Amino acid sequence: xxxxxxxxxxxxxxxxxxxxxxxxxxxxxxxxxxxxxxxxxxxxxxxxxxxxxxxxxxxxxxxxxxxxxxxxxxxxxxxxxxxxxxxxxxxxxxxxxxxxxxxxxxxxxxxxxxxxxxxxxxxxxxxxxxxxxxxxxxxxxxxxxxxxxxxx
Length: 152
Fold this sequence. Notes:
- Strands 1, 2, 3, 4 and 5 form a five-stranded mixed β-sheet that branches.
- By secondary structure, this protein is α/β, with parallel strands linked by helices.
- The mean pLDDT is 89.
- The chain is globular and about 35 Å long.
- Helix 1 runs antiparallel to helix 2.
- The protein has helices at 19-32, 39-52, 111-122, 126-134, 138-150; strands at residues 10-14, 61-62, 65-68, 75-85, 95-104.
């Protein structure tokens, strides 16, 4: 997985006003990345998952994720918003950094669970969160995530 996240997958200085707008931007961008072929289906997948349970974690981070046939290859998009957004979270605090996971429906029980688990573990690492929060270089942020994903 050492090249799973490229610098193109890191969106800095975003100005979404709502969680839904952030998810729309990520959905549209997934098509630009070539990870999906239908932004509306990806967006619907994100919204459906948000209805099941919160994807906001702690300290301003969220892990929105969707599984749909519109996703052609598993991908992650890091979305850093300029201002915190209302987003149901474990600590009740707003979210300004989302690590969005996109998984083909056929990989729901394998790739999806592995990525979700590894990402959740990453977000328990204080140094990782600090570096992503303070980071302003897409290549460095991608490299940091890839290095962490490669750890067993």
